[in-house]
Amino acid sequence: MKLSTLFVGGLASLAAAQTPAPYTDAKSGITFNYFAHSTGYFFGLALPANSTGNTDFIATIGGKGTGWSGTSLGGGMLGKLLILAWPNGQNIVSSFRKTANYGSPAVATGTFTQTSIPNGTYVNSTHWTYTFLCSKCILTDKTTFAPTDTAPSLGYAVNANAPSQKTNPASSVSKHSTEGQVVFDLKKAQNANFATWKTWAGKPAVAKRERPFLG
Ligand code: HEM
């Protein structure tokens, strides 16, 4: 009895400790260095092949059900730039957040912006996915990973319950039921197609993008 309990516990922690790996979204064709958690949470990053002077990335964040997923671009919760997203019907609601205290983080403002990439943003029977261009999101003030980082820890937080006002991007949320940090491999996030993918931000979805390399 005791042994089987240990065994099940061991499997559960193995599943929760997955490390980021390359993953290509079937709809957008974008390849990410991608972390998937057993709760359904996932977060993936794509970067340009040449990182010199770059402050942008493409990210995909998602989960299953109607709860929220959150990512800390700086690892921990406090004083870091957070991305918070959840589904609202067929749409995704997302915002930047920041907080000095352990409580529902306030909306953060700055020069950073996020713009949806429609072909990578959808809700289906298994999960919801929000893919976006994050412009001016790689900062040098320690609120995010730094332009020179190759293996930063990013934070994740997830709660299966929908926010109280799910149509409002500034809605408060209740505390995550699962949180942690995971090391991303930014070299593996680099891709020569980044410049093309970036042009899709804010444009209507085009079916051909499902096969972006076939011309
Ligand atoms: C009412 C809302 C929230 C409360 C009360 C809260 C509270 C806390 C607390 C107390 C911790 C320390 C670990 C623990 O004792 O559990 C923590 C860690 C963390 N939280 Fe939150 N949090 C909230 C919302 C959020 C949101 C919306 C995000 C992301 C968008 C977030 C991201 C994180 C991360 C990344 C960690 C660090 C995990 C680690 O270092 O291992 N939190 N939070």
From TrEMBL:
Name listed for the protein in its UniProt record: Iron reductase domain protein
Domain of life: Eukaryota
Signal peptide limits: 1-17
Keywords linked to the UniProt accession: Signal
Domain Cellobiose dehydrogenase-like cytochrome, chain residue ranges per copy: 23-195
Alphabetized PANTHER family for the sequence: DEHYDROGENASE, PUTATIVE-RELATED
InterPro entries: Cellobiose_DH-like_cyt, GMC_Oxidoreductase_CD
